[in-house]
Amino acid sequence: MREPWHPAADDIKLAEVMHALADPVRLEILTRLARGEGGNCGEIGSGIDVHKSTMSHHYRVLREAGVTLTTMEGRSRLVRLRRGDLNARFPGLLDSVLNALL
Description:
This protein is mainly α. The longest helix has 14 residues, at 52-65. α1 runs antiparallel to α4 (52-65). It has a single domain, classed as Arc Repressor Mutant, subunit A (Orthogonal Bundle), CATH 1.10.10. It is 53% helix and 12% strand. Keywords: DNA-binding, Transcription, Transcription regulation. One of its GO terms (molecular function) is DNA-binding transcription factor activity. Residues 6-101 form the HTH arsR-type domain. InterPro entries: ArsR-like_HTH, HTH_ArsR_DNA-bd_dom, HTH_MetalResp_TranReg, WH-like_DNA-bd_sf, WH_DNA-bd_sf.
């Protein structure tokens, strides 16, 4: 399985990040990642009532916007926030969003 594509830190665009964060399911994924729940796509999405293909779409939107980083470990996809990259690019944005959610 090939590694998923991610934008370089300097190529992360505010409009794409805001679009990615404009969906309730993606905000729930963001909240769970910030709390440190899981890391495996299946664990993070557990209990969110959407079809598997829809969940894959949400992960892809977050990843391609530069909000998350997905790595492969065996057959598992591990997802984590790109907190450092987002803070360097848009200082305080991620913390502001998370403070409103948590």
